[in-house]
Amino acid sequence: MSENKDLQVAEPATSVEGVKFVYDFTEGNKDLKDLLGGKGANLAEMTNLGLPVPPGFTITTEACKVYLDSGEEPAALRDEVSAHLDALERRMGKKLGQADDPLLVSVRSGAKFSMPGMMDTVLNIGLSDKSVQGLAVQAGDDRFAWDSYRRLIQMFGKTVLGVDGELFEDALEAAKTAKKVTVDTELEAADLKKLVTRFKRIVKTEAGRDFPQDPREQMDLAVKAVFDSWNGDRAKLYRRQERIPHDLGTAVNVCSMVFGNLGPDSGTGVAFTRDPASGHQGVYGDYLQNAQGEDVVAGIRNTVPLAELEKIDKKSYDQLLQIMETLENHYKDLCDIEFTIERGQLWMLQTRVGKRTAGAAFRIATQLVDQGLIDETEALQRVTGAQLAQLMFPRFDEDAKVEKVGRGIAASPGAAVGKAVFDSYTAVKWSRSGEKVILVRRETNPDDLDGMIAAEGILTSRGGKTSHAAVVARGMGKTCVCGAEELEVDTKRRRMTVPGGHVVEEGDVISIDGSSGKVYLGEVPVVPSPVVEYFEGRMHAGADDADELVEAVHRIMAFADRKRRLRVRANADNAEDALRARRFGAQGIGLCRTEHMFLGDRRELVERLILADTETEREESLKQLLPLQKKDFVELFEAMDGLPVTIRLLDPPLHEFLPDITELSVRVALAEARKDSNENDLRLLQAVHRLHEQNPMLGLRGVRLGLVIPGLFTMQVRAIAEAAAERKNAKGDPRAEIMIPLVGTVQELEIVRDEADEVIAEVEAATGVALKLSIGTMIELPRAALTAGQIAEAAEFFSFGTNDLTQTVWGFSRDDVEASFFTAYLEKGIFGVSPFETIDKDGVGSLVAAAAKAGRETRPDLKLGVCGEHGGDPESVHFFHEVGLDYVSCSPFRIPVARLEAGRAATQSQGSDHR
Q: Which residue spans traverse the membrane (predicted)?
């Protein structure tokens, strides 16, 4: 049906400003993704490689941005499109939509970053009541022509004219029922002709206009629809989920049609150069005879494995394998390929660097290094900390007693447990109320995206590894099992029937294993991931029984550790957490929160300290606390011997150590009513009232607490110094760093430092041990950041407390705002991501950068670190590398992620993108 004649392409017109909005496939290349989108750039690249690509052209993202900004297409766009369409028609030897032998085209979206199924596509443009007759004659196949026409009306009606797609689906189902068939390929030409008439009536009724018969009008309206789909709800939701910028716009690809629905010697498929689920090399993909491309990704008909194509059409199969090898070697990565076979002729419709699971990413990166296609530096850019975090999730216990009820295709690994729900609305609703859910569908479509995000995992009874559910789930790192054919999903009755007749109702708990494809009734117990066992030293890379994935992770982590400049420490408050952190690769403790040591059995001692009326009472409380604190620090120094341990002096608001004011008031009132009031409770209530604060997070805490309660900080400093001296006497190597919290002015730090220096000198004199204890502060207030140059005169190190710094810069109370309005802010695009999750570079980040610079101008050897939650966030780690911090500190389980991202930050290559 399509020919690629070597004809001269007319010089395209440009706008008066000289901006070019349309590029022929022969003009671009893979490096023009910003302009041509990923699809257009790669179609051009395949054309340049001499691969069989149907001719076409790309309307740029710049044209889309003009349209989205102004509501109108660029003035020059129509003329440019006309010039390229004329060239395409000359090359193909036929006119768009001509009656006797029509040229048909597809109009497909193509943003810089892959957004599978999130934007619009229309196939078979150019068909009309007249041209369908010519297509039938030219193809010698009436059924094919009318099938293509009904597809156009259906896609155009839903995508361009906004008609409810269910109306077309219902009409199609009714036609199959009337014919007593189960699949659309069994409908004959006469049936499809009637269906076209029905579809046109639906368009007229629902859209208030006739289906357009002018092929150019069809194409122009389809282009606008693709532009508009950039700001569709599902596209915006997907971009927020994947952190894709909202201002990129989409390109539009106009490509001459090739047809996979011309009979048994035609078909369409999706292929991967390696398994996107495991990373293993082999023949992976899906093929569907007598179908168009949307049939495969929609999952509405179950495909056959790509390997079956060898039996169906060996010539095309062999050619496809050769092209796959060419593309993988050219892109030096896993490639995801869409192709169509038209009566034995293979055509390449798309290629892109394929989305893959976390495990596949690590395996493929090391495989490509071994094959000499990439080096270790590039390998680090092929994996992410988010993927490593996924690999650390638990997996199902294979030895547990479980009831397996089905098995599908292992589309995206993980162990997911939740209540079965059968639509996206319920998935979102139940998830927001705290329920864990599994979204169960026959097949998903782009409208299910919000439910897929909300669910723990996705289970479908149709589709394969290249279906919408599988592709999107892999991109999100979400557990997914597809094509579980033995499960009968009834979405209307909200139930699923499993082999043996058992019915799973909505709300019943099921478990799905995205690594094996198995589906279980009830909750299956989980066990630690082998990757976690590796980090904890319970599985050794290189051993005979080592997991292949563990080996790949080990190698990538070794690359990262060799490359990174940032050191990685842990937030740990006791010896147990410190030892775990050390096993995970921590290079010290960046934050030991001493307030956590004062809870539990010691709470009463703190109450006595706060309530002390006399100096004697206060000193007695401190005297009892001192040996307990010293013991804490001895254990900590032993666990982290030879590595730095940053100890933050007591920081929390006092109310955290006192009884709840309401509970205490009730207790006192009841006691008075019984006339047996407790003197201690009365005294305690008076103290609680005296110390009550409207906003305790901005009240008496941190350094203010140490200045108001005499002896509190000096007791802690003495405990640190004595523990360090004891550890040194035991031939250890304690490296304590004392951190003063919530400093806002250098005078606060100077007072506390002078007192601390006196105590350290006393301990040195008493023990005969020389101590090297550095004293610094946590920068967590805007004023501290703005006066960092002054504060550095009294501080040997800064540790940025980005949790509090974010709260005080934004004026947010984290405990309140995340639950109240953050969801709305994310949905409205005010935030791309919560500033408590990833550092706000423009606001909080600018203060961090300025404080780091000012501090080092005062004290060039100033040590700089960060110990807020951002210390383990992948994107934030890159920022901290860029501004020159020495280390990040995070929770023990995030240490491997921070190590990996620190290595990636050090080797980040400009312009490289392997999303």
A: none
